[in-house]
Amino acid sequence: MANGFVQANLVVLRKEWAFDFLLFCQRNPKPCPVLDVTDPGSPHPARVAPTADLRTDVPKYRIYRNGELVEETTDLLSHWQDDFVAFLLGCSFTFEKALLDAGIPVRHLEEGKNVPMYRTTILCHKAGRFEGPMVVSMRPIPARDVARAVQVTARFPAAHGAPVHIGALEAIGIQDLSRPDFGDPITIREGEIPVFWACGVTPQAVAMAAKLDLMITHAPGHMFITDLRGEDLVGEGLK
């Protein structure tokens, strides 16, 4: 959707946990690159989409209580609280146009599916109550194009940047690519190598580990679309 615009992952939590989560993001910039943080109680991301409303402008939300997924909903109007702080984190969907422009196939788009995502044995750096495994997204890349895919995506550090792992899935604790923890399984063809990028679904794994009384995220693949263009993230990050 809205090809060329920056897409974002969402995390909403109480103000009392906001500093620790911001510190978690600072310590784990690959899976959690921060694009914007709202003022307490405000649903408007002033930096990346000031006229948007984060209570209604994400296609589907997930609500976690005490680390358990208890509900999916299409709006937060009845859930929003005055002490909520919302974080928008960069998403690898942002750099997929650049991959396509470079002639590199993106299989889940070809097959009309959500990107497959996997919990790994790569542990994030802890901050307060926030800790847990990194989640990665996987795209099968023809062997001849892997180096180019690394170069292309490295230009987008605010959208997870270069891959965190290439091939050898067992080395990061993934046993079966046909059984992703989030998203959909996709076809891997002969001569292709699985390439793994840090994923903004990581906070959902962290939410389960932290067992906060309340934490809200986007549903995997149901992104918030900002007003920014992908080129706004090229180089050092969000300009």
UniProtKB/TrEMBL annotation:
Enzyme class: lyase
EC number: 4.2.1.-
Listed transmembrane segments: none
Name of one Pfam family that matches: D-Glu_cyclase
UniProt keyword annotation of Lyase present: yes
GO MF assignments: lyase activity
InterPro entries assigned: D-Glu_cyclase (IPR009906), Putative_hydro-lyase (IPR038021), UPF0317 (IPR016938)
Keyword field: Lyase
HAMAP family listed in its UniProt record: Hydro_lyase
Family classification: Belongs to the D-glutamate cyclase family.
The protein's name in its UniProt record: Putative hydro-lyase GCM10007043_06840
Species for this entry: Calditerricola satsumensis
Encoding gene per record: ycsI
